[in-house]
Records
---
Amino acid sequence: MKAIGESDHLFKYIAVFISVIGASLGIAFGIGLAYLLSAIGASGGGVYIAPIFLPNKLVQVWLMSLTVTLLARLFPAWKASRLSPVSYPSLCLDNKVFYLDSWKRVKDFLNIL
């Protein structure tokens, strides 16, 4: 993306966006699953037990999920923003690093696989 003129911060903005969406969908999925499992348990002849969600606990879980996801995403995003758009990815295999800068090396790498 740097090759087409995007800023270095775009990687970080994408990481934050994905983290917020993931944390929010995780909370929504967890709440929905709790209600579904309660309904399934009640339909099998059991007693319906309504799930209880405390708003402050939901916010704590959301913030913890957001923090963990951000920590897991921001470091790779920071490293990606520092790469030169011309550099090639390196592939590690058996403690050897292959730089994909020519067709011959690509062919040699594929033959190893």
---
Amino acid sequence: MTNLKLISTTRPLRSKLGVLLALIALGCTDEVNTLRTLENNGFTDIQTTGFNAFQCSKDDTYSTGFTARNTKGKGVSGTVCCGFFKGCTVRF
């Protein structure tokens, strides 16, 4: 009878998948264009809040959440969606 050693591939696979997902999430924000877009539209006290999943269309490359004050001084939150060759859109 031979001794067979079972090799578990589940743990390394999960680890690699977790790292990949973290890199994707970190790479999908564009703070420079988010700040520029919001400032150009009159927002103040802008704070970016990171990646916002499922807020933008399939044509958008970047999805950056934010909180800010609008032109009337009211606190708002939303997402700035940016894509290659299309500019940025503010979504509330």
